[in-house]
Amino acid sequence: MTYTVAIAGLGAIGMRVARAIDMQRIAGMTLAGVSARDRDRGRERVADFRAPPPVVGLEDLGALADIVVECVPAARFREVAAPAVSAGRIFMPLSVGALLENMDLVDVAQANGGRIIVPTGALIGLDTVRAMAVGEIHSVRLETRKPPAGLAGAPYLVENDIVVDGLTEPLRVFEGSAREAAKAFPANVNVAAALALAGIGPDRTAVEVWADPHVGRNQQTVSITADTGEATMTMANIPSDENPRTGRIVANSVIATLARLTAPLVSGS
User: Fold this and answer.
1) Alpha-carbon distance 181 to 174, whole Å?
2) Are residues 73 and 140 in the same domain?
3) Which of 13, 145, 204, 242 is deepest in the core (most CB within 10 A)?
């Protein structure tokens, strides 16, 4: 089986995924189009591709490809998502927190034959969470620790006058539900939304966010209790060179998710 892919956004993640497809590193995938905030700059960025794709508007991607991968700021999420699912496409969001505020799109996808597939991203163990959710999950907690620079400028910090520059000790800057975390840190804790969707929902999934000057990586720890057992899983992601708010592994996760769609053998639930 083969698919055409369109990518919304040519930042650190989108560019890596686009190049992997263009270099034919994902079996059965071809790049049909991309979007960029600055279209002229976007054309320059893909000019050296083997087959440079057209650079179009966000709303046009759903008409170009079987799969639309969203890598744009959360504020522009619906511009990409709504046309894609309305056209019956496979939609892969990275602004997963924004999906929590646009869950009507699940019904739109179902009505039009589309699918919304959330890549695991910078988290670990979502297959375990999904398996536990088949039974009864009692509690889920995510603790995310980031270098202070990885949280700088987050809306919640700005609105609450929380300063993370110059920290010498870890500071817990947020505690609440995954839904609240997604609103507070739209560019930082999409993992919380992904975890919530795999498990017991955004209102029952507990989240702590720490600015920690002692860590050099984005660290995520998931603790879960269920009728099938207990699990604690920690992952320390190396921040992207281009964007310290995200980890290098996020682009790899998208690539792995795409590859899974055409792979003759898949391991893991």
Assistant:
1) 8
2) no
3) 13
3 state DSSP class of 144: strand
Strands 205-211 and 229-237: unpaired
What 103-108 contacts at long range (C-beta under 8 Å, 24+ apart), as own/partner pairs, is: 105/78, 105/81, 108/82
210, β-bridge pairs: 145, 172
User: Which two three-digit tokens encode residue 60?
Assistant: 């046009």
86: helix, strand or coil = helix
* Token couple for 140: 């889920």
What phi and psi values does residue 210 have, to the nearest 5 degrees? -120, 135
Residue pLDDT, tens place only, 18-32 = 999 999 999 999 999
HEC secondary structure over 171-218: EEEEEEEHHHHHHHCCCCCHHHHHHHHHCCCCCCEEEEEEECCCCCCE
The pTM is what? 0.93
Give me 209's structure tokens: 């966010």
The CATH number of residue 151's host domain is: 3.30.360.10
Strand ranges for 19-116 from DSSP E: 29-35, 67-70, 90-93, 115-116
Same domain, 221 and 256: no
In a domain, 242, yes or no: no
E-assigned strand segments in the chain = 3-8, 29-35, 67-70, 90-93, 115-116, 137-146, 171-177, 205-211, 218-226, 229-237
Query: Domain for residue 243, yes or no?
Result: no
Kindly report, residue by residue over 31-90, the tens digit of the pLDDT. Answer: 999 999 999 999 999 999 999 999 999 999 999 999 999 999 999 999 999 999 999 999
Domain boundaries, position 139: 126-237
Q: Which of 34, 67, 72 is nearest to 51 (CA)?
A: 34
Q: Is residue 116 part of a domain?
A: yes
